[in-house]
Design goal:
By secondary structure, the chain is mainly α. Helix content is 77%, strand content 0%. Helix 3 (37-60) runs parallel beside helix 5, helix 12 (253-283) runs antiparallel to helix 16 (346-373) and helix 14 runs parallel beside helix 16. This is MFS transporter.
Length: 493
């Protein structure tokens, strides 16, 4: 439970402040332009520093890194909760992201190296998959409850007791063999600058694409610069003797396929979170609490699918026989959301779609994480775990920006055309204008989610064609699934 608790804290913090953002904006007098930095500061630091955070775990030990990440994340959360200016809040969120980049890879690598028995490993990864898929939705629920009944600041303060419990549990329950001096990889400083710089540039470009548009000079410059830095990073990794990211980790066909599936799958999922939050609150008029609770069925479906379906079937089926049907079921759920209307339709449209999406993502996440972290030397398990989190964060950032751009541009075109038609037929009153605007917003959401559906289907194709690993045998974990050494197994998840 300790690793699960820490991972949940990291994942839900990407969304817990979303519903609280309007309250924080009013109190700290943020402009509409600057308010995005409450979200962007976290994702930018988290996504950009993950490779470095993963390698730190390989250098100083996973348990020590895990505990440092917990303490730092708690302190940054307390600083953000006490923020008296927007700059202080932005800085605290960036610190949260930086410590999350240290904490998340350490948590996953501890999970990978602790559980080597196949049955225990399936249960552990089932819980992790439920958190990876449902944590963002839990964040929306928690944000609604805390904002409505306490204060927006508690969306940050709540991390302090969670981190304290995880820290105490880690002290007593987690065990990790610290690498000897001869086993520790050297820190690849040029790789850190190139790799982290490239990821930061791309994540920042995607966040700026929302207010500026994809054709903006700054966005294009950041994208091109980020791609160039990552190309230089790949070149350097193939030549240095101590690479930050050993290329054999991503050259493995199964692991590369799993990482691509992760990145593609979260595109549609994160876009859905954004659109449904606005749909429920702006179009249907839900309160923050009611909007958060509306995501509860999807969270329950992810937990059920990960812990009861994936965890049981992973022992019997090849990974792609879980990933591919899961992505297809999730795409079906997204497709149902393309039929949303401005009339209240939660029970008939939203609820079935969320349940299908949750069931599908639960089938996808667990085998993806398992395949992506298996068969890696112990000295590289931290950076291997970081690549999984990087795929999720970069995929989520790009997906949110891409689908949001599609939605806003489509909505604007729809609203302008229909208002013009209404004006030609007679001066439209406020009620007509309000109706057209809501219809335009829903139309834009439907088109964007349609693109998300297509991307999810591409994830299914990638899973089927690239992930060719066989089902693991019963008993100890098969070599292609096993970590490089077998530490004392503890029930840390």
């Amino acid at each position: 439970m300790i690793i699960a608790l820490a991972q949940l804290m990291v994942v839900l913090d990407a969304t817990i402040v979303n519903i609280a953002l309007p309250s924080a904006q009013r109190e700290l007098h943020m402009s509409d332009t600057n308010r995005q930095w409450v979200i962007t500061a976290y994702t930018l630091a988290f996504g950009g520093l993950l490779l470095l955070g993963g390698r730190i775990g390989d250098l100083i030990g996973r348990k020590r890194t895990f505990m440092i990440g917990l303490v730092g994340f708690a302190c940054a959360s307390a600083l953000g909760g006490a923020a008296h200016s927007q700059g202080m809040l932005f800085a605290a969120r960036a610190l949260q992201g930086a410590f999350a980049a240290v904490l998340a890879p350490a948590a996953l690598s501890l999970l990978t190296t602790t559980f080597t028995d196949l049955k225990e490993r399936s249960k552990a990864f089932g819980i992790y998959g439920a958190i990876a898929g449902g944590g963002a939705a839990i964040g929306l629920i928690a944000g609604g409850v805390l904002t409505e009944y306490l204060d927006w600041r508690w969306c940050l303060y709540v991390n302090v007791p969670i981190a304290l419990i995880a820290l105490l549990g880690a002290t007593w329950l987690l065990h990790d063999r610290r690498p000897a001096a001869a086993e520790r990889p050297s820190l690849d400083l040029p790789g850190v600058l190139l790799g982290c710089g490239g990821l930061v540039a791309i994540v920042y470009a995607c966040s700026e694409a929302v207010p500026r548009g994809w054709s903006d000079a700054l966005v294009l410059g950041l994208l091109c610069g980020g791609v160039a830095l990552l190309a230089a990073f790949a070149w350097w990794q193939s030549r240095t003797t101590t690479p930050l990211l050993p290329l054999h980790i991503i050259r493995n066909r199964n692991r590369a396929g799993a990482l691509i599936v992760m990145a593609l799958a979260v595109v549609g999922m994160f876009g859905m979170f954004l659109f449904m939050t606005y749909y429920l609150q702006v179009v249907l008029g839900y309160s923050p609490l009611k909007a958060g609770l509306a995501f509860l069925p999807m969270t329950a479906a992810i937990v059920l699918s990960s812990t009861q379906l994936s965890a049981r079937l992973m022992n019997r089926l090849p990974p792609r026989l879980l990933m591919t049907p899961g992505a297809i079921v999730a795409a079906t759920g997204l497709f149902l959301l393309t039929f949303l209307t401005v009339e209240p339709a939660y029970a008939s449209h939203v609820l079935p779609a969320m349940i299908l999406l949750g069931l599908g993502m639960g089938l996808v996440f667990m085998p993806v994480v398992n395949v992506a972290t298996s068969g890696v030397d112990q000295r590289d398990s931290g950076v291997s775990s970081a690549t999984v989190n990087t795929a999720q964060q970069v995929g989520g950032s790009i997906g949110t920006a891409l689908l949001n751009t599609i939605a806003t541009s489509t909505s604007a075109t729809y609203i302008a055309a229909h208002l013009q038609a209404a004006a030609a037929a007679g001066a439209p009153g406020p009620a007509v204008r309000d109706r057209v605007v809501k219809e335009g917003v829903v139309h834009g959401f439907g088109i964007a989610i349609g693109w998300g559906t297509g991307i999810m289907l591409i994830a299914a194709v990638v899973a089927w064609t690239m992930v060719t690993a066989r089902a693991p045998k019963h008993g100890p974990v098969a070599p292609e699934y096993a970590p490089a050494y077998d530490p004392h197994r503890m029930r840390a998840v």
